[in-house]
Amino acid sequence: MEIRQMAELYALYPEPQKGIRQDSPELMFLRHIAAGEYDRAAALFRDRKQFTEALPVVDAPYGRFTGKEQIRAFAEGFLSRFGAVGLAVLPMFQTRSGGRSVTEVVLNFTVDGAIDQVPMFAVGDLGSGGTLEEVRLYCHSSFVPGLTPYRRPLFPSAHLEMGDPGLMTGAVKEYYVALHHMPSLDVDRILACMHPDCVFGGYGRYTGKAPEKGPEAMRRIYTNMASYIPSGVGMRYETLIDDGVTGVIEWVHVVTDKGHKELGRVAMSGIAAYMRGEDGRLISIRISDYAWMEKDIVWEKTGTTEEEAAKVNRVPEFPAGVGEKNQDIL
């Protein structure tokens, strides 16, 4: 069948990572949905989470589904939400650590007799016995028909600055310390933790252009980011799944007064994968977010107002040295 819309992830990484666990619950969840096995998809969740009375959850770009009944309804409506009549799931990368598993997939939706590919992160909070407690799905808003580009912060932040760098290791730690260097991210330091062949991208639409790759491209990308990170917006990581090769980070924005007033930014959720090469430096950076799409948000579709959204994770400014704290711990 013709691929009408190719996923950037598939174009940049045509060979799946070796060693993917095909029975990983978050991957099985998507495969049950693709097979029309909606009861089996919901059966991956217990009625309650193991150590609390909280209900299991699936959080998707277009809504939050709480409890097994809603999760089954989510599964049954998944294909139609993408305007599809068929689905095949192609796992590309998998990162598993600390009770969580992340599978990066290309979803091959059958739409009008052709294949529309959607790259997606599927994050599973794992329960015992091969079960799931939560699944969080991330893809760019442009892949979901009718979706306005607002993804509210999925996690309530304990404090409003970046996470402690001491929780990270190696190039991923170095990247985040440099990213949050004040008053602007340290471009040279970021480039120093990247392999010369580092590839940037994977979660947009494939345009046929060569990938963003190499020192010159990375310097251009991060010099642009330095104009607003972290003076206008920072990324506070809320989960960290790192298997020693890839670090996957779920994060929420923290937005400064400057970031909102001068740049129009509001806090949203996103996710990124940082893959190390054999020399320990970053060889791949894959990010899924709605950066700079605030002007396209139709607030009537979000369940909140722009004024309310602007108050979430808002700070006057980041203190000097926020990216340096505990960087040399252990």
Description:
- The protein has nine helices and 14 strands.
- Helices cover 22% and strands 31% of the residues.
- With 330 residues, it is α/β, with parallel strands linked by helices.
- Strands 1, 2, 3, 4, 5, 6 and 7 form a seven-stranded mixed beta sheet that branches. Strands 8, 9, 10, 11, 12, 13 and 14 form a seven-stranded mixed beta sheet that branches.
What composes the largest sheet? 7 strands, mixed
SSE order in H/E notation? Answer: EHHHEEHEEEEHHEEHEEHEEHE
**Parts with pLDDT < 50 across at least 5 consecutive residues:** none
How much helix is in the residues?
A: 10-25%
Radius of gyration over alpha carbons?
Answer: 19 Å
User: Whole-Å distance between the termini?
Assistant: 53 Å
Number of strands: 14
Average residue pLDDT? 94
Secondary-structure-derived class = alpha/beta
How many helices? The count is 9
Share of residues in strands: 25-35%
Q: Which word captures the global form?
A: globular
Keywords for this entry:
330 residues, alpha/beta, 7-stranded mixed sheet, 22% helix, globular
